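Cross-check.
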Amino acid sequence: MKSPKEIVEGMLAQDAFSQLLGMELIFIEQGACVLRCEVRSSMTNGFGIAHGGITYSLADSALAFASNAHGVHCFSVDTNISHLKKVKLGDILTARCTESHRGKRTGVYIVDIQNQDGMRVAYFRGTVFISSEAW
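Predicted model, tokenized:
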């Protein structure tokens, strides 16, 4: 069986979008993941702040990596995000995903996203379907 790091490094190597956003894997274990990325000018919207899709995408990738690190394929079935503070150009975002529940067929994960000052900028909750297909 592959280790969580092997699984996630393999996923990330095939994940063009996470690579495009410059996501950096900081920590991985079964059910937990920490990702980081810097907000670049290409990530801002018409208001000059980060597009909401940036925090969502960072959280979604953290969810995928944390849930799949158990060694079987998992797929998100429901997600939601609350944007709490403006995210600005140059901010360094850190997404910390933790497993809240893992059953036989579903798992629930919480992702807390903070900026470089430790200020929470977004809160994400996701549910995954747990397949029987091994990595």
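DSSP finds three helices and six strands in the chain. The first strand starts at residue 24 and ends at 29. Passed to J.P. for a second look.
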